[in-house]
Amino acid sequence: MGWLKEMYEDHGFVLSILDLLDIYSKRLNEGKAEPEKLTMILELSHDFTERCHHGKEERALFPILTKRSKQTVDGLLLEHEKGKALIKGISDSGKEKKIRLISEYQALIKAHIEQENLFFKECGRKLDRSEIESIESGFDRINAETLGKAGRKEIAGRISRIKESLK
Ligand SMILES: [Fe+2]
Ligand SMILES: [Fe+2]
């Protein structure tokens, strides 16, 4: 899969994980605590969004895209940090604050993804062959390191199992 398509596909998974948080948050607001479900969602977010997806962006993609626009990449990195802090807050806080932080996290990551999709597409037109090869071999290496053998299938399976458990 080409790097741009892989980023779009990754963003689809990240948005599905956000949907799980949204469902969890609505249930929490209705009085269902279900801490074990939040743990499963946050573990998935850590494994996929943080380690795999942000890992690929930060270690393989951004070092190349920063040559096109350092300002944009610095802004995106700052948002990754904000997202990480919000996730920590979500797991550490009580009900009302959890609900508020989940909605802040969702807004942050949705806007972040919209911006990245446009920026990546724009950059895609300007990259040369060797830059593309370096990004794609980096992605393969980080996928192998963070997802293991089952890869994206395992992530898709975890998303649907958690979704099922929240019905
Ligand atoms: Fe990102
Ligand atoms: Fe991203």
Share in β-strands: under 5%
Low-confidence segments, ≥5 residues, pLDDT <50? none
Amino- and carboxy-terminal Cα gap: 33 Å
Q: Estimate percent helicity.
A: over 70%
Give the names of the bound compounds. fe (ii) ion
- Find the CATH superfamily: nmb1532 protein domain like
Mean pLDDT: 96
Instruction: Tell me the structural class.
Output: mainly alpha
CATH class: Mainly Alpha
Count of runs of 4 or more consecutive helical residues: 6
CATH architecture: Up-down Bundle
Main beta sheet strand tally, sense and closure? none
Looking at the structure, what is the overall shape? globular
Q: How many distinct beta strands?
A: 0
Order of helices and strands: HHHHHH
How is the topology of this model organized?
Layout: H1 3-29, H2 35-65, H3 70-92, H4 95-124, H5 129-147, H6 151-165
Helix pairs in contact: 1-2, 1-4, 1-6, 2-3, 2-5, 2-6, 3-4, 5-6
Keywords:
single chain; 167 residues; mainly alpha; Four Helix Bundle (Hemerythrin (Met), subunit A); 6 helices; binds fe (ii) ion
Summarize this structure briefly.
The chain has helices spanning 3-29, 35-65, 70-92, 95-124, 129-147, 151-165. The chain is mostly helical and 167 residues long. It has a single domain (3-165), classed as nmb1532 protein domain like (Four Helix Bundle (Hemerythrin (Met), subunit A)), CATH 1.20.120.
What does this structure look like?
- It is a single chain.
- With 167 residues, this protein is mainly α.
- The protein has a single domain, classed as nmb1532 protein domain like (Four Helix Bundle (Hemerythrin (Met), subunit A)), CATH 1.20.120.520.
- Helix content is 87%, strand content 0%.
- It has 6 helices and no strands.
- It has helices at residues 3-29, 35-65, 70-92, 95-124, 129-147, 151-165.
- Helix 1 (3-29) runs antiparallel to helix 4 (95-124), helix 1 packs parallel to helix 6 (151-165) and helix 2 (35-65) packs antiparallel against helix 6 (151-165).
- The radius of gyration is 16 Å and the shape is globular.
- It starts with a helix and ends with a helix.
- The structure holds fe (ii) ion (2 copies).
